[in-house]
Amino acid sequence: MATAQTSLDEFFEQHNTLSNIKPFVSELKKELKMMQSKLDWFTHYVEQIDRVHDTIVEVKIQQEEMQHNLINDQQEWSEIQAKLAQTSGKGKVTLNVGGEIFQTTIETLTVEKPSFFTALFSRQWHVEKDEEGSLFIDRDGWLFGHILKYFRTGEIDIQNDDPVLRKDLMIEARYYHLERFAELLAAVPPVIETKRNFINSTILSSDYELKLNEFYGNQNQQWRLIYKASRDGYATANFHDVCDGVKPTMIIVLSKNMCSFGGFTQIAWTKQKKDNTDSNGISVYIEKST
Prior knowledge:
This protein has 290 residues and is an alpha+beta fold. The chain has 9 helices and 6 strands; from the N terminus they run αββααβααααααβββ. It has 3 domains: 1-86; 89-187, 2-Layer Sandwich (Potassium Channel Kv1.1, Chain A), CATH 3.30.710; 206-288, no CATH class. Mean pLDDT is 77; it is low at 84-89.
């Protein structure tokens, strides 16, 4: 009986001890949970630092590669300049571009680099020459005139934001490897449309449109563009294909030396070779473009 009583006393004593320890165990669990949360946050923080470090290393490698490429480009251009300096004729060159003759300098043609022309003159590519000894390039001469103007001025002038001209020049920019020229073409802001009497004309200003309609006798007369050489072709047959049988017509021509002139007739165009007189016809000289 005494032994049983002793065991029971020990049990109650242990129970009281455990009851006293229980709050400390609960607090310990909370602290352990908090420590685990901090450990998880620290692990995540370390992972972020590792990612940032990897990014920095990658950027540094890219920077070193770019610097290396830049040094190579500078060396290549220095070699090109040295070869260009050895070109005879004091840098003057005559080009035959699609039958159009242009006289300029190598310095002007190589203002944008690298390009078709820097490669042409530095590597001394074999380029066909015409009967006069001019370098022959089988491309559109009229479009090249715009490119040469860009070389000389650094600016692009697309009158009335002609989308056809811009598209054609973009094709030429890709052929001649003129990246900056292409960027400027793409960046040309669109022109706000205004009422035009000569729809899609890239030669006439609004003032001259009004003046021509005064000659015609109707200031509000609208004219539809049916033929454009840069679009439809420069051959006589191209002209007659779209203009024969049409009347009345107003013809505006932009010459090689940038003079604008034209005329008006009420007689329909025809391929037949015969003399026709139009008593109401007029001819006009407009201006010389600068």
